[in-house]
């Protein structure tokens, strides 16, 4: 979806036991449905997905980003086995999550490799 030339892009990869969505561009009320659609596709593959959202390439985001993250977190929380890890959280978005009290409800890692390793099923 394009908003005055400012698109949101999502690249999905699957690493064995989990899905990685790399998100970049502009995440706002016009483009949020694109991310929600990709998250929905991950859910279609598993009732309790292990999902990594890599957000370092976001150039712009507004309060809609908080809503999308909170909604995705709630979906994960409603499953028995699902987990959500945020990677590459832009400082401004981390600050918004902190100020709204949401940051403590998310798992945050430094990089995709660390997130994927932490999501390995525990035996």
Structure, described:
The chain is of the alpha/beta class and 123 residues long. 37% of the residues lie in helices and 34% in strands. It contains four helices and six strands, in the order E-E-E-H-E-H-E-H-E-H. A six-stranded mixed beta sheet has the order 1-2-3-4-5-6. Strand 5 (83-87), helix 3 and strand 6 form a beta-alpha-beta unit. The protein is globular. 28% of the residues are buried.
> Helix share of residues?
25-40%
The share of residues in extended strands comes to: 25-35%
> Residue-averaged pLDDT, rounded?
90
Largest sheet, if any? 6 strands, mixed
Rg: 14 Å
Ends apart, CA distance between termini: 41 Å
**What class would the helix/strand composition place it in?**
alpha/beta
Total helical elements:
4
The shape is globular
Along the chain, the helix and strand elements come as EEEHEHEHEH
Main sheet: strand order = 1-2-3-4-5-6
Uncertain runs are none
* Strand segment tally: 6
